[in-house]
Design goal:
Number of helices: 2
CATH class: Alpha Beta
Order of helices and strands: EHHEEEE
Structural class: alpha+beta
Mean pLDDT: 90
Strand content: 25-35%
Low-confidence stretches: none
Helix content: 25-40%
Strand order of the largest sheet: 1-5-4-3-2
Radius of gyration: 12 Å
Number of strands: 5
CATH topology: YaeB-like fold
Length: 88
Amino acid sequence: MTDSYKHVAEITSRFKKSIKTLDKGVKEQLFIRIEELLNGQLSGKSLKGPYRELKAIRAGKYRLIYSDKELCKIVLYDVRHRETAYMS
């Protein structure tokens, strides 16, 4: 990853735990998407219902769940397979 970004990433323990179980190819896709997100080149889809404060972006068959509510800060919450990403 590059050293200078428009945004700062905050990584939750849930995100760290989720990413550990993924294979190398999926992790590479996620890191590319995270870089685009931090550079301001990408904006995700706003979620609805109990997740309305969060957004999601696609990385293959996985979804990166994050929040950009704070100025210049992206909070990475979770990574889930698309089939289970939006379930409680």
